[in-house]
Amino acid sequence: MRTQANANLANNASYRQQALELLLILTTVGFFYLAFPTGGYSHFAWIALLPICLALTRQTPRQAFVSGFLAATLGWIFSIWWVVPSLSAISNSPIAALTPLVLIYCCVSALPYAVACWLHVYFNCGKSIHGALFSALNFTVFVNYTPQILPGNLAHGLYNQPLFIQAADIGGVALVFFIIHSVCFLLANAIAIDSKRSKQKLGCVLLAAIVFLANYSYGYLKIKQSQAIDLASSKQINLAMVQPNITIENRSREDWQQLAPELMTMVRNIIATEPVDLIIVPELPVPVSFQHFSFDKKQLSDATQGTALLLTAIKPIADNLADSQGYFNTMELVLDNRLVQNYAKQVLLPFGEYLPFETSLPWLRKVFPGAANYKPGQSKALFELPLAEHSITLVPLICYEAVFSDTVGQGVALGGELLINTSNDAWFGNTAGQKVHLALSSFRSIEYRKPLVRNTNNGISVIIDPFGQQISSSKITPHSQGYSVTTLTIAPMQSFYQQHPNTLKWIFIVLAILTITTKLVNNKKAGN
């Protein structure tokens, strides 16, 4: 009887432990959702993984892998659920066909977290200061340096807290991610370490405070620099962002011809009332092009009256949009009513702008009959905008090209001074997709210390300065038709990340490999 009672007690204790671990995992899922731009409570990024770290303290490596996979999969599902209806709207594809694809994406995106959790337990990282830093390094390497379709993580949740993300000018998003998770794992270890090891516990807390305050101080000093820009060596431009707010139900040339006069009236009003060097018209759900449609050329020429125009357009490969050869998503620079340059988007959205594997799997077209047939451009182009006293080199970025640092870096390396990102985020409706797109793009301004002009069809349209701060006067009310005119100062600034974009990446990767190898060798020796 006593043996049976002991077994029952052990089972009850095991069930309670499993329930507690599940609760901690779900708490991390909740914190992940809140910290991501979807939730809007960015400060949770600092402690999002703390609950699961506590859950891992009594788990085996295999259990840790499952816990990490479960937490990250659920975190991604809750944070990017809006992708399904958005892709359905963009591609005219059934939600039932897209849902499994997004679920698979969430599972694949969870794997780096699962592997990092496995390493955390396998190398017993929850019991020391160096273990916390080692785990932060592993998470940083696996989450940031594996190929991704949507390169989002907890660091992006701090996009509206520029004070805490200035270190991106040294090591990009990955360094901000490392700082956040160093603090998180140090605090988790301070809780998990046995109370008899009070020095280790105190050391974890003190180092977490030092890392947090050092990051805060660096951000404070950098933002103070934004108030001391040398105007004598800077350039200025008056630019107008137009937000047409055209609904996604309008898709055809006929729809555009009905809507164009109202938009042209707005452009005329801007020209008549504001001193403008450049007018930007964003990506729209309707096909439009100064170069390829005579109607558009006349309407835009009459409205702009020779003012420089940057138009996001479409370029058929053949003579018409219906041709099976497809088309390019382009940006056109029009000066004095004449097309002088264009750029074809290089990074296309899978299922939204093209159908992956269509050549080898032609039956996919039957499953996704409405998927677009855009083709990628082959080279990066810069736009040279001549002004009265100087010229400004623009880096064109269409839609989600701005979320990829390498793509932006190509333009900056060629001499780009001003980042221009146009998009049609109307596909997201009233979901958090607009905030997520803005958050992922915002980091480019800090990484390269270049202003980012983000002009969208229905919001969020805003200009972000080189320190990640939104210029409030430039913001246009989302989900409304309107415009803003902003005098923007462009200072000749460079960052360490701009000059050495891969340095910290390789330092982190080499450190992770060396540390893992050393620990494996030491474990093997200890086993012998």
TrEMBL record:
Q: Give the first-level EC class, as a single word.
A: transferase
Task: Report the superkingdom from the record.
Answer: Bacteria
**Pathway named in the protein's UniProt entry:** Protein modification; lipoprotein biosynthesis (N-acyl transfer)
| A GO CC term attached to the entry | plasma membrane
- State if Cell membrane is listed as a keyword: yes
Its membrane topology is listed as: Multi-pass membrane protein
- What Pfam families does the database record attribute to this sequence? CN_hydrolase, LNT_N
Q: Which InterPro entries match?
A: Apolipo_AcylTrfase (IPR004563), C-N_Hydrolase (IPR003010), C-N_Hydrolase_sf (IPR036526), LNT_N (IPR045378)
Q: Membrane-spanning residues where?
A: 19-35, 41-57, 64-83, 95-119, 131-150, 170-190, 202-221
Main site of residence?
Answer: membrane
Name by which UniProt lists this protein: Apolipoprotein N-acyltransferase
The record's section on PANTHER family has: APOLIPOPROTEIN N-ACYLTRANSFERASE
The record's keywords, sorted A to Z, are: Acyltransferase, Cell membrane, Lipoprotein, Membrane, Transferase, Transmembrane, Transmembrane helix
The CN hydrolase domain sits at 237-490
Q: What is its EC number?
A: 2.3.1.269
This molecule's function is given as: Catalyzes the phospholipid dependent N-acylation of the N-terminal cysteine of apolipoprotein, the last step in lipoprotein maturation.
